Amino acid sequence: MTKKTRKKSSKKTKKNSSISKVKLINIFLLVFLFAFIASALSYFIMKNEKENTNKTIIEKKEVKKFQEKKLDEFFKLEEDPKDAFEEYTQEFNKDHIDKPFEEIKQEIQKKKEELEKKKIEKTPLEKKEAPSKTTNDISLFLKKSLYKYDGKSKPKIVIMIDDVSSSRQKKAILDIGYKVNMAFLPPTKGHPNSAKIAQDLPFHMIHFPMQASSKFKGPEKNTLKITHTYEQIEQRVKDLRKWYPNAVFTNNHTGSVFTQNEEAMDKLFRALKKYNFIFVDSRTTAKSVAKKMAEKYNMPYIVRNTFMDNKKEYAYIQNQLKKAIKIAKKRGYAIAIGHPHSMTIKVLKESKHLLKGIEPIFVNELPYL
User: Fold this and answer.
1) Phi, psi (5° rounding) for residue 162?
2) 148-167: per-residue pLDDT in tens?
3) How crowded is residue 173: how many other Cβ atoms within 10 Å of its Cβ?
4) 243-273 tens-digit pLDDT
5) Cβ neighbours of residue 244 under 8 Å, at least 6 residues apart?
6) Taking the chain, what is the end-to-end CA distance rounded to the nearest angstrom?
7) Distance from C-alpha of 182 to C-alpha of 163, rounded to nearest angstrom
8) What is the rounded distance in angstroms from the CA atom of residue 69 to the CA atom of residue 75?
9) Helix, strand or coil for residue 281?
10) Burial label, 136 (beta-carbon count in 10 A; 0-12, 13-18, 19+)
11) For the chain, what are the domain ranges?
């Protein structure tokens, strides 16, 4: 091989070597570029997934929060009872227990003597035109007053849930697993089916809206007012009879103003008697004249003993239920009122063991009726 040929071969080798290095660099750069792109894509994908995951978590939390809020709204779970759907008065915090038996007996005896005196004072003509009924004038009222628990039969407890207006509430109450009295609000645009869903129940009541104090800002439509005429009140009672043909018992929704007004309550009891209704006093005011009207119209006097859920706390509600049970064991029966709050329903469902030896009943099964 000549010197010239060797020189050419050396240049060719160097050239090939240079090309190989360029190729390697290009390949390396290409690999690096792919790696960089892959890393960048991976980063953005992971970031996007993380963001989506976080977004999903936030959305789930928001959905849950929304659902809980809606559920709370559905069950009327306001934190402040003063803003609650039901009127809140100081009387809600008080347990109502009738006077001692001996004191009631003295009142009854006095009433009998008054009636006898009126009978004697009447002329023969007056007696012929309007014969005195004496004791029968207050017979149903007397039944409650004279009832004395024998201590042998099972004590009875009437648990009422007011403000019922939907199928969902009805189902939740039925799932409690024992007799609970449902008091349904009359139909309005807000709850148009409240009367329909009550009809297939073995027993139901009407939760009758009546005038509350001016502090209460959420009155139901067609709430009875003390300014209403007898004709207006009678028409409202007539409507209730049409909507709830099988109901007999009605209790007041709110009504701290209405139930202490003698003239208004007289009109109401007159209409209730005409359409075969019996009034249960929710006793939202200590000044309620329901007892007086029950006596006047020869109707049974029924009044609640405790409100269970002034506070929507498990321990509080259960303690109020225990109070009602204690009253029932002492005098043979008790009436406790609550509302369709999820917490109230939960407590009632989980408190069956407290009712051992106690019989939950509908209000028409009270022992003195």
Assistant:
1) -85, 170
2) 999 999 999 999 999 999 99
3) 21
4) 999 999 999 999 999 999 999 999 999 999 9
5) 184, 195, 198, 204, 206
6) 135
7) 8
8) 10
9) strand
10) exposed
11) 1-74, 85-103+150-365
At a CB cut-off of 8 Å and minimum separation 6, what does 94 contact?
286
Residue showing tokens 């007056």: 126
> Domain 85-103+150-365, CATH 1.10.260.40 — does that match?
no
Coil/strand/helix, residue 288: coil
Which has the closest alpha carbon to 334: 322, 347, 342? 322
Distance CA(316)–CA(133), nearest Å, equals 47
- Directed axis angle between helix 101-121 and helix 139-146, to 10°? 150
Rg of the chain over Cα atoms, rounded to whole angstroms, equals 38
pTM over 0.85, yes/no: no
Q: What is the 3-state secondary structure (H, E, C) of 203-214?
A: CCEEEEEECCCC
What would the two tokens of residue 159 be? 């648990």
Torsion sign (Cα): 220, 226, 227, 232? positive
Q: Which element (helix H / strand E) includes 249?
A: strand 249-254
Q: Report the length, in residues, of the chain.
A: 369
DSSP-assigned letters across all residues of 353-368: GGGTT-EE--GGG-TT
Query: Cα(305)–Cα(336) distance, rounded to whole angstroms?
Result: 6
